[in-house]
Write a structure and sequence with these properties.
With about 210 residues, the protein is an alpha/beta fold. It is built from 6 helices and 8 strands.
Length: about 210
Amino acid sequence: MAGSERVAEAPTASARSTARSTAPDAVKILIAGGFGVGKTTMVGSVSEIAPLRTEEPLTAAGLDVDDLAGIEEKRATTVALDFGRITIGRDLVLYLFGTPGQQRFWFMWNDLSIGALGAVVLVDVRRPESSFAAIDFFERRGIPFVVAVNGFHGRHPYPAAEIREALALPEHVQVLLCDARERTSSRDVLIALIDQLIDAATGAAAS
């Protein structure tokens, strides 16, 4: 090399180890629920990056397939996934994957769930039955989850206890009231899930 030009040295094993120890842990979280419950809205409200969305307009061709009862104002739907990211503290980054809600896209849930440590199941109290499949999906696979009741227009007509009873949820499943449009509200739901995962890991390590 001529003059003062130097070839950059490869990082030593010690340097690589230090970099790994200071890098934040990455955790994959699913945002699931029925059609039109607010999954895309939650990912978008809380993500610190511009979220990846795969929304397509609803068309007349889907009128016999998509149940718009109670969500007549909906104009688009997720056909693959939503993706976002949020940093929780200095050493933890959450990668958020919003699942498609329509039944014809449920085959993608298995692939999206690979590597996921936990999930948020969003519920619309106007149509709670739309999220039964998501609850069953995570229960069957043993993936920890919390239930977040999305208060459309900021309203929560039912307390968490009534919603737990209506969804036949066991006591260990948290039921949280939220507003998917609000960043702070969505973040608090994710923090509650992470706290649950940490508690479970701590208990398993102690036993």
